[in-house]
C-alpha cells in the first residue's frame, strides 16, 4: 500500500507559556487554511510551558489544521523548539511561525513563486527590504537593538541579509535535514546559525518582504536578550572553527 503524500506545508509554532496569544493565532490559521487547495499540518511545540498552552493547542486539533502538540517537559529555548518541530514535520515546505502571529499567515503565498523556481532552499520573511508593510512598528529601543545586532551579524557571520530575526522562515524538506541536524544553538541567536550553516553548504536563501504587526506583549528584552544574542553570534564563529558544522 502506497504511503500518503506529504503535506505541501508544515507550520511549526514554538510556544512557551502562550495560552493568551496562541488561540487567536490558531483561529486565524484555521480560517486561512480552510480556503487553500493544498494539504497542511501544524505542529505546536510546547517548550516546557507551565500554563495551558498545550490544552489551548489541542482544542484546535481538527481539520483544516491537522494539528499535533509535541511536548518534551522542560523549557529548552526557542531554537530547540524550532529544531524539534522541523525534524518531526513531514511537509515539503516547513515554515516556522511565531505564536503571536505578527506576520499574517497569508504572507506565505509570497514564498511559493520563489520555491517554484527550484533553486531556492529558504525563504526569509523580512521587515527591512523594499515592499515590507510595517503596520505597527516595534518600540524604538527594539528597532535600535535590531540594527546593531544586524551589523554584528554581517561583520561576524553572514552577510547580505537585512533582517535575520523575523519569525517567519520557510525551508525545503531537504534543507531542513542538512541544516537543523547541525544546529547547536537553542537561544535567540539560532536564526543566524541556520543561515550560517546554509551559506556554508551553498544553499540559496532569499529575503521576501512581508507584512508585520508588532506584538506589544513581546517578551524580548532590549538589554538582556541583545547581550545573549551577541554572545551567541560569537559562539557561532567558535563552533565553526571547532568543525561543529562539518558533515558528520
Determine the fraction of residues in helical runs and give it as a percent range.
25-40%
* Low-pLDDT segments: none
User: What's the CATH architecture name?
Assistant: Alpha-Beta Complex
Largest β sheet strand count, sense and barrel closure: 7 strands, mixed
Structural class: alpha/beta
Major beta sheet, strand line-up? 3-2-1-4-7-5-8
Topology:
Layout: E1 9-15, H1 22-33, E2 40-46, H2 53-58, E3 67-71, H3 78-88, E4 93-97, H4 112-116, E5 120-126, E6 133-136, H5 140-156, E7 168-172, H6 173-180, H7 190-200, E8 204-209, E9 211-213, H8 224-242
Parallel strand pairs: 1-2, 1-4, 2-3, 5-8, 6-9
Antiparallel strand pairs: 4-7, 5-7
Helix pairs in contact: 5-8
Structural summary, described in words:
The protein is an alpha/beta fold and 248 residues long. The chain has one domain: Spore Coat Polysaccharide Biosynthesis Protein SpsA, Chain A. It has eight helices and nine strands. The strands form two sheets. The chain has a seven-stranded mixed sheet. α5 runs parallel beside α8. 39% of the residues are buried.
Amino acid at each position: 500500500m502506497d504511503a500518503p503524500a506529504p503535506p505541501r506545508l508544515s507550520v511549526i509554532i514554538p510556544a512557551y507559556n502562550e495560552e493568551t496569544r496562541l488561540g487567536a493565532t490558531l483561529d486565524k490559521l484555521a480560517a486561512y487554511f480552510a480556503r487553500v487547495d493544498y494539504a497542511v499540518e501544524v505542529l505546536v511545540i510546547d517548550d516546557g510551558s507551565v500554563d495551558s498552552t498545550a490544552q489551548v493547542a489541542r482544542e484546535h486539533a481538527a481539520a483544516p489544521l491537522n494539528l499535533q502538540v509535541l511536548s518534551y517537559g522542560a523549557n529548552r529555548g526557542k531554537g530547540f523548539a524550532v529544531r524539534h518541530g522541523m525534524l518531526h514535520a513531514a511537509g515539503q515546505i516547513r515554515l516556522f511561525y511565531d505564536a503571536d502571529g505578527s506576520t499574517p499567515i497569508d504572507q506565505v503565498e509570497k514564498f511559493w513563486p520563489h520555491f517554484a523556481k527550484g533553486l531556492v532552499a529558504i525563504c526569509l520573511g523580512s521587515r527591512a527590504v523594499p515592499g515590507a508593510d510595517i503596520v505597527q512598528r516595534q518600540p524604538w529601543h527594539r528597532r535600535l537593538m535590531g540594527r546593531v545586532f544586524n551589523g554584528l551579524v554581517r561583520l561576524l557571520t553572514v552577510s547580505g541579509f537585512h533582517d535575520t530575526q523575523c519569525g517567519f522562515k520557510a525551508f525545503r524538506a531537504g534543507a531542513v535535514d542538512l541544516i537543523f541536524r547541525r544546529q547547536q544553538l537553542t537561544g535567540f541567536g539560532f536564526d543566524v546559525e541556520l543561515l550560517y550553516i546554509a551559506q556554508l553548504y551553498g544553499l540559496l536563501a532569499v529575503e521576501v518582504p512581508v507584512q508585520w504587526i508588532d506584538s506589544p506583549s513581546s517578551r524580548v528584552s532590549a538589554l538582556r536578550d541583545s547581550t545573549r544574542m551577541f554572545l551567541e553570534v560569537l559562539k557561532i564563529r567558535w563552533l565553526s572553527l571547532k568543525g561543529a558544522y562539518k558533515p558528520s
